[in-house]
Amino acid sequence: MTGPGPTSQRPQESAPTPPSSPAVQRANRMSAANMIRSLAPLVLICLLIVAWVSFRQSAVEPVRGIDPTSTVQLAAARASYPLVVPTALPDGYQPTSARTDAGQAEAGDPVTLEIGYLTPAEEFAGFVVSDDARVDAVTGVLGGAEEEGTVDLDGETWTRGTTQRGETALWREADGVTVLVTGSAVDDELETVAAGVEPYTG
Q1: What's the topology of domain 69-199?
Q2: How many of the other CB atoms lie within 10 Å of CB of 97?
């Protein structure tokens, strides 16, 4: 008698995996690498914008003030006339340039002094004093300027005019010396500089 033999078993077939939904497929594609690749162009654009703004800001150099004292002293020492300069100007008038030809002048030679100011409104006001009516600092402004009357400033009478550049100019002449104030600043600021002109006392 034979005993029961081993029961033959057929391997069970695994159930087919259902297809993933579109949402799952999209989630699988959103790996870290894909996210980096997607963000890279945006990051690059942001960096370019920041670099461009930084470049533009660095290209605009701030105006630096100077001390015109040594230049004024040299002009006063060489000039054959009593030098005058703007004195005790209100806060906000910052000297930014000063030059004179006195360094090359000999006894009796003409001497010109120029000082440039940044005004409170961040405009330019230029001061010139010279006993040379032909110097460019004078002729370049008054040549072709249209006179428009006079104005009294701190007891001094100044001629008012408009230059060929359309800027206001204030000037006065005495004993062959021309004193001139002009620039892109508004009239009130130019008048403030002119009213502050006094003899230099060292």
Answers
A1: Phosphorylase Kinase; domain 1 (3.30.200)
A2: 17
Determine the length of the chain: 202
Would you say 75 and 83 are in contact if contact means Cβ atoms under 8 Å apart?
Answer: yes
Q: Model pTM greater than 0.90?
A: no
- Per the CB < 8 A criterion, the answer to whether 188 and 121 are in contact is no
Distance, in Å, from the CA atom of 159 to the CA atom of 173, rounded to the nearest integer, reads 9
- Alpha carbons 182 and 164: distance in angstroms, whole number: 12
pLDDT digits (tens, 9 = 90+) for 102-136: 998 888 899 999 999 999 999 999 999 999 999 99
**C-alpha separations of 40 from 3, 48, 53, 91 in Å:** 74, 12, 20, 51
Q: Is the dihedral of CA 61, 65, 67, 68 positive or negative?
A: positive
Taking the domains of the chain in order of start, what are their residue ranges? Answer: 22-59, 69-199
Q: What secondary structure letter does DSSP report for 103?
A: G
